[in-house]
Specification:
With 286 residues, the chain is mainly α. It has six helices and six strands; from the N terminus they run αββαββααββαα. The strands form three sheets. It has a two-stranded antiparallel sheet. A hairpin with a 5-residue loop joins strand 3 and strand 4. Helix 1 packs antiparallel against helix 4.
């Protein structure tokens, strides 16, 4: 972000430098007031002296109002030929007034239905003061004509360079933002994947814990049932044998005494019963 701001500041500085360079070639101000120019000239807003007749065309007086010029052949409406006007900058129109060459080129209202040679585009006539740029003509001040073309080319090149720099800055900023968004998206996706994995692992662990709890609960219930059953058997007079199983001694005794044994196996029966009673520790009467 800091780099992007610096690049933007550099581009703005470059634009300012190009703008300054574009106006650096302009001629220095020749005047700051109308009385600093010739009698038939006025001072325009850029500080240049030009024929008074051009003031009403451009409305660019340094004071905002065109001065009343006097003296010289171009003063007032006093011409019948172009030569009676300011040679090189004015022409005589059909009303008998001297005006800037621009009017003749635009209105085509010369006194003889023609414009003087010095007002035509191929005119090479010069004067001691910087003439106003003639519309459609190559004749003009030092910064017009071929010089103006060269100067305009330099300005165009500078503007194109600024545009290229600005476009490059915009593209670089867009690329940086895109890369940042891509990294953020990858980080979010990775975080979500890890969270999903941890959630799945937690679900499996929770399921395992629940199964263990269910198993423990079932074992506890079985143990309680077994304990209850053992207590019931013990209360019924049953005893544990060597294998940990309960034997109903009284029931076994009753079953053996319920039927009379045959004479031949009476002794065997008594011996087995005594041996069994001795093993379980039950005292019997002889």
């Amino acid at each position: 972000m800091v780099l992007l701001r610096r690049v933007n500041m550099a581009a703005m500085l470059l634009v300012v430098m190009v703008a300054v360079a574009a106006f650096a070639g302009e001629a220095a101000a020749q005047c700051t007031a109308h009385d600093e120019c010739a009698e038939d000239e006025y001072c325009d807003a850029l500080g240049g002296c030009f024929p008074c007749t051009t003031c009403v065309v451009y409305h660019d007086s340094i004071t905002g109002a065109c001065p009343v010029c006097s003296g010289g052949p171009a003063a007032g409406i006093s011409c019948t030929t172009h030569e009676q006007c300011f040679t090189g900058r004015q022409y005589c129109d059909s009303t008998g007034g001297c005006f800037a060459c621009q009017g003749c080129l635009i209105l085509d209202d010369g006194v003889d239905n023609t414009c003087p040679d010095w007002c035509t585009p191929d005119s090479t006539t010069t004067s001691t003061t910087n003439p106003r740029v003639i519309l459609g003509s190559s004749t003009g001040p030092a910064y017009s004509g071929s010089g103006s073309s060269s100067h305009g080319t330099e300005i165009a090149v500078g503007v194109v360079g600024c545009v290229v720099v600005v476009v490059a800055v915009v593209v670089a900023g867009w690329y940086v933002r895109r890369m940042k968004r891509s990294e953020e998206k990858n980080f979010v996706d990775m975080t979500r994947a890890l969270a999903a994995k941890e959630q799945a692992r937690g679900s499996i662990l929770a399921l395992s814990v629940r199964r263990d709890q269910q198993r423990q609960s079932q074992l506890s219930i079985l143990a309680q049932q077994q304990q209850s059953q053992n207590q019931r058997r013990h209360s019924q007079g049953m005893e544990l044998d060597e294998h940990g199983e309960y034997i109903d001694v009284e029931g076994l005794h009753r079953s053996h005494t319920a039927r009379a044994p045959a004479p031949m196996d009476q002794q065997l029966y008594d011996d087995e019963f005594l041996e069994l009673a001795r093993e379980i520790g039950v005292a019997t009467d002889a």
